Amino acid sequence: MTSTHSHEKVTLENVEGADSDHGKAGGGGPISADDFGFSPEEQKRIKRQIDRRLVLTVGAMYCVSLMDRTNLGAANIAGMGVDLKLIGNRYSIISLVFFVTYIIFQPPSTVIVRKIGPRIHLAIITLLWGAVMVGMGFVKTWEEMAGMRVLLGFLEAGFFPSCVYLLSTWYTRYEVGKRNSVFYLVGCVASAFAGILAYGIMQMAGIAGLNGWRWIFIIEGIITMLLGIAGYWLLVDFPDARRKNWSFLGVREREWICARVDADRGDAKPQKFSLVKYLRAGKDWKAWAYAMIFFNTTTVTYALAYFMPIILQLNMGFSVGAAQCLVAPPYAFAGIIMWFTGWAGDKYRLRGPVIIFNNLLCIIGLPIMGWHTNAAVRYFGVFLVTAGANANVPAAMSYQANNIRGQWKRAFCSATFVSFGGIGGIAGSLVFRSEDAPHYQPGLYACIATTLLTMIIVGVLSLEFRRLNGKADRGERELECDADDTYEPGFRHTF
Q: Where are the transmembrane segments (predicted)?
């Protein structure tokens, strides 16, 4: 299928909510990014400003998001398991119920954030889930904790897909890999030290008659609320938005951003929402393949997040304090791998091989972690698995973002992508069962299986991309129709 449509070059005059008193940079007519006259140094300065304001802010907020949803492991070995009588599968239940509402309420989030703007949407839900975290410090039964986790999942549901969508609107396809890596790296590495933070907070046991695990929720909840308040002033809107949170960028710089994105993939111009157009993206099987990659990835990352302190204590024989603190080094190593693979993926314009490399680290590390006789060597395996699995989160985000176009297809795919990640969270909270302690071999087999499945899916997608790109090169078809049934003639899939 081919099309002779040539998409409209984007300025703030022809996007919704543009400042009507500003003309086009060139004084009339459609313009491209080259028409603005910014020197390479000025372009770098603009992108650095966006990086500082956008990537670091959402990274810091994602840090508390990860801490708040995964601090159950630290709280459990700090006394929560005893106080709330978490016998049998109760710990797994309060881990997984979070993901029920987390999954259900993700699809509408990318529509809501486009309508009301990221500043309001992200700041409010962050403030509210921080309040829920404080409340978790005062529960009396495990059923109450499960109920609070359900509410936490509802509030956190809109955060990650909105961030993924927001980042993709600001950067071109071969800039987004490093930014996704930094976004996730800031959250992942900083939250890795949550174990050390939790161990320090535990020492507050007895203050106000509260056990140490309760103070973990209370203190971390207060931190989240403060960051949610700060986020209202620090966050930015979409580059084409009418809202006036633009003190760090001028109108001409915004026009340049929109023109760059439009030249890269032809979808910078906002499209009027239509449920039919939004859901039409579900007809593309590749959208579900990207989502399945993220399911496989998060199955491993959440399994590590929820059970690593427990495994370090029960399987490897470390004390409670040591288990809390030894969580941090593997995540620090994961941050290094994450940054390197994000940089390499952008530089060489590769996505699939980066995912394969990360999965190879997991395939090597999982048997070492599970079956070696020496605890120190098993801990080395934890490094490899943690690095490979967590580095694949931004890698999978970039893989998906590079191979779709169109505002509402991007919104739909961001929602389904992250929803499948939430389903992976359910799987990850169940794979390491208490009855399998201390070796947890069924859970290890499950992680190996999901890792291998990701490698197979990437292989199938690579073959399909090669076939489709070949047809486009021969003029037999155009790629990636957007919600308005238009095509970007120069678009090609990224392997």
A: 54-72, 92-113, 120-139, 151-170, 182-201, 213-235, 287-312, 318-340, 352-371, 377-399, 411-431, 443-463
